[in-house]
Specification:
Elements lengths: L4 E2 L11 E5 L4 E5 L7 E4 L1 H11 L2
Antiparallel strand pairs: 1-2, 2-3, 3-4
Amino acid sequence: MATWRTSSYSGPNGGNCVEAASGGETVLIRDTADRAGAVLAFGPAAWRAFVTGLGS
């Protein structure tokens, strides 16, 4: 079972929030407002590329 963490950029009113968890060799992302909904799964290299791209 994954341990979910809310993004430090999430606001206190619950709008536009995401949660992340590590699933072994996979990074999992979900919408805080829809915890039963879809979960995105990224491999380590894809996640690093995404996060690096955010800083560009």
